[in-house]
């Protein structure tokens, strides 16, 4: 006791006199260490710069020292989920860099970065800047190394090259010898170098006569070439391409196609070679370019593909260097054309033409990012048809297959961003397209599971951070960061990804366990936390949406997820226990709703819909384990809870006397008890003990679940729901068609009456919109107030139930 008092006094004395000084000393030491680390990094960079300038004969130890200073990164397959949650996931965000490329980047940045960037920004021929993708849900720090390496991909404009030659002729000479592509590309370039390659290949055309011309003659020739594009010219180019794969004709086609892509633009500085005035000419040049140019490129610079899907293009030859400008100009024109098209057939043809171009564009990072952004936009737009979405997805998938790790990461992040943005508006018209996006994009995360694990874990972790912030900062509508369509669809999408790649059948085909299987636990925890964030009747539809996601995951991966308790909470809520009031509202469509309108609360229509969802989801949950040897004990607590709820409902003045709800629950209890008896009969015949796990797991494994009593009930209920959904969909389409016809007739009648009636109707519509906006704001406030009242009522009811239980 005396020693403890002495230690306490010593501690207090130390805190009073010395603690502050010790902490300050530690901070000072920490700062000194940081300065030393910065000095070491600067030394390593200087060593790399010196090695670059001195050449291979310089200090050979600099590279080894720089390599030794790098911290080793951990592979995703070697780390568990617990290690990631402890902070180890930060290692995965570091990107390995090639030493030779980093030295080249340092050399370029040291000598000409500032001048080249300033002049390049003023040039007219360079492509627009492409920023890194920013995800609304995922907060992932992007490395600046890709951007630094991409700055020279599209080359420099003419003015930038001239300025660089004047200011730093040595660096200009260095670029010309070592990286001529950085000085060559201009979207509006004349592509004249392509003709030099086709002089000996074109049999129909005469060889080009080289003669000196003065500036005046060159100007006259340029004015002469600026003429109208005709079908005869296109037919001549087409014949030459089909006969000899002429590069000279291909060059003219690319220039004509560029004019078609810039058809509605007026740029005096970069005036186009040809003018197009006929729709037939526009159609012919577009079709010829999209179909002919990939064939010409494949003939002269063939793409070799291995059995594993890797592609190889000979990029070091003279021919590819001359054709690189043609390829980039053609790709830039295709991307520009995509932004102007509205016809579905032409749009599909243009997107399909991008697939054979992808191997040639892998080395051009900026153009590749712009292409990914454009294609993903068509894939995620709600206005796109299913055929357009599928065509765009095939381009995305092809890029993931043939691209390197950096390209794959950009594609995966852009795809996830497009999915989240495209699911912002969810209704009966867009839900089919959103489901198509989720099912198609889920495949991409299995093509490279190491990278897929990294991106999926980062996204799920960010969803968990949003949920944690909403729980901690439970004020100022913080729950709205979680309770929205984008968050719900994000959780559902990751459920699709894990369901597709973590199923036992898929893992048996691959011969090994999927890396993505480690993400099942964190995803389930986040989903269960999200559905219980606001446990009010207003958000019962969101709870049902998330339970369906978990049911899919449990069904595909044979993973037990406790969902019965979440459904029993709905059944025991105040909304389902108290008698409901009559209403003439239409039944709520729970498939396209995450929040119930205020007018539906405490109505018989909403109560019937909620009860139907509870019965359906409980049946779908128990049918997953209908062949389990422990089914009788597994289903008993739920059967007892439902029977107790039905007994409470028979009490006069207290319970819910809704006959429709009671009949559905009674039928479910009967099927659960019948299935329990079926399992008990089969279990009585076995001759193994519970400790024999292999025999326990194999119990009724070969028996079809559809033949069990509960399975037969679920199959019949699915057929009834599918038929009901089909009738509802047909009625909705007819109603939509009728509404459009009425709007068309009203517009035609309004045009005949004159302009005044149209102005009056427009003013009335604006007034109605203002009124609707004010009403929606009032409804939002009333909903919040009511949710608070419901929470208070539910707490009072729970207290009453606890008192009754104690009295019993």
What is the global morphology? Answer: globular
Structural class: mainly alpha
Average predicted confidence as pLDDT = 77
Number of helices: 34
The residue ranges in which pLDDT falls below 50 over 5 or more consecutive positions are: 56-77, 84-155, 198-210, 752-791, 801-808
Query: How big a fraction of the residues is strand?
Result: under 5%
Describe the largest sheet.
2 strands, parallel
Helix content: 55-70%
| Spatial order of the strands forming the largest sheet | 1-2
Region (Disordered): 1-78, 96-163, 195-227, 731-808
Biased composition (Low complexity): 61-76
Pfam family, one: Noc2
Subcellular location: Nucleus
Explain what this protein looks like in three dimensions.
By secondary structure, this protein is an all-alpha fold. Among the domains are: 428-534, no CATH class; 559-746, no CATH class. The chain has helices spanning 2-17, 19-54, 61-69, 81-85, 99-122, 145-150, 158-167, 169-178, 181-184, 193-197, 215-225, 231-244, 247-261, 279-300, 318-338, 344-352, 358-361, 365-380, 386-402, 405-422, 431-441, 449-472, 485-501, 504-510, 520-531, 540-557, 564-571, 574-577, 604-623, 631-649, 659-683, 693-697, 709-753, 755-807; strands at residues 227-228, 274-275, 303-305, 311-313. α16 (344-352) packs parallel to α19 and α22 (449-472) packs parallel to α25. The model is unreliable at 56-77, 84-155, 198-210, 752-791 and 801-808 (pLDDT under 50).
